[in-house]
Amino acid sequence: MLKLRQFFIILVLTFPILISFDSTGINKKAIASYQSPEGIQFLSYSEEWDQAKLIDLYQQLVKNKHGKEIYSLQEVSIIGGTHSSSFTKGSYHALTSSITLYQGDTYTNPTDYAETLSHEYGHHFAYFYFPSHHLPFSKWLTVRGIEAPALQWDAFWNYNEKFHAYYPQEIIADDYVLLYGATHKVEVDDVYSNEAFYLRTEHENSQLPNVLENSKLHSYLEEESGIKIDESRLLQLPKLADWNHSTLSFQISDKPNVAYRLNLEFHQSGDKASDEWELYEITTDETKNIVDFSLDGIDQEVLSASDYMTASIDVVDLSTSIGFETEEITLDLSKISDKHM
């Protein structure tokens, strides 16, 4: 029985290497190539990608924070078609320590692959420093604060796209994107058009504990990799501090240039239609750790006719594009004695 268990553990440990033989669809000579100073081979199998674009692609890659692991990345290839009839834009191959980017005939600008490169490089980072992260007993899982039953562990033999956000391999790659990945600034005008919230850099699995405020995990990643996490990119989830008929107050990270969108929905009993409102706030240098949303602009008839309201907050750091949406909370309006004012 012990030997069988040991065999199973060895099989699971080596499976990511075996699965790396998965076909990339590359079966012809490269159209263009470039070798980076670190020795990474950038190869193009698309007529849309010449050496100049490959050099720009390399520049996109090194915007992600990296350490000695970058010297073990062997290859970044870009092909014109899709992967296994899928619309995925990238994949990482553990055996060859290589990244393949897809749909190069469609996405012809290196910036089109910026976030894809961050995520795929996150896989490289994870397998270099934390090779057992895809196992239920890994230290990473414990420090990350996730219960093993909450995740899917069969990615290597029973992969299903609908479980993508619950595979540990994808979770740690998205963790890398948020903690180490390349960032970009967001224009204030994009907040009020909602573009900033739709295009922000966020974790695919919003049900997990917020990786941006897990200081124990940050220390663990830094100790193992030697790569520091910039404190400027950290954000805590807003938490309701106080509320009344005119104001909702939330405890937030004490940092400027962060946009908050409060999503409110007012509900009446029965089958009557609900009313939806959005309120915006952007923190400044004077903002501390509390943000107040005034309800004065909301139709008072809506407030007085409603029995309860539901609220969630969308967040985006305008300096990094990093953000998230909070879980929805329900507030009983009948508990406010002066709600009809």
SSE pattern: HEEHEEEHHHHHHHEEEEEHEEE
Which descriptor suits the 3D outline? elongated
* Largest sheet data: 5 strands, mixed
Supply the helix-strand structural class. Answer: alpha+beta
Strand content: 15-25%
Give the strand line-up of the largest sheet: 1-2-3-5-4
- Separation of the first and last Cα atoms: 72 Å
Could you walk me through the main structural features you see in this protein, from its secondary elements to its overall organization?
- By secondary structure, the chain is an alpha+beta fold.
- It has ten helices and 13 strands.
- Strands 1-2-3-5-4 form a five-stranded mixed β-sheet, with helices on one face. Strands 8, 9, 11, 12 and 13 form a five-stranded antiparallel β-sheet that branches.
- The radius of gyration is 23 Å and the shape is elongated.
- The model is unreliable at 1-15, 17-23 and 337-341 (pLDDT under 50).
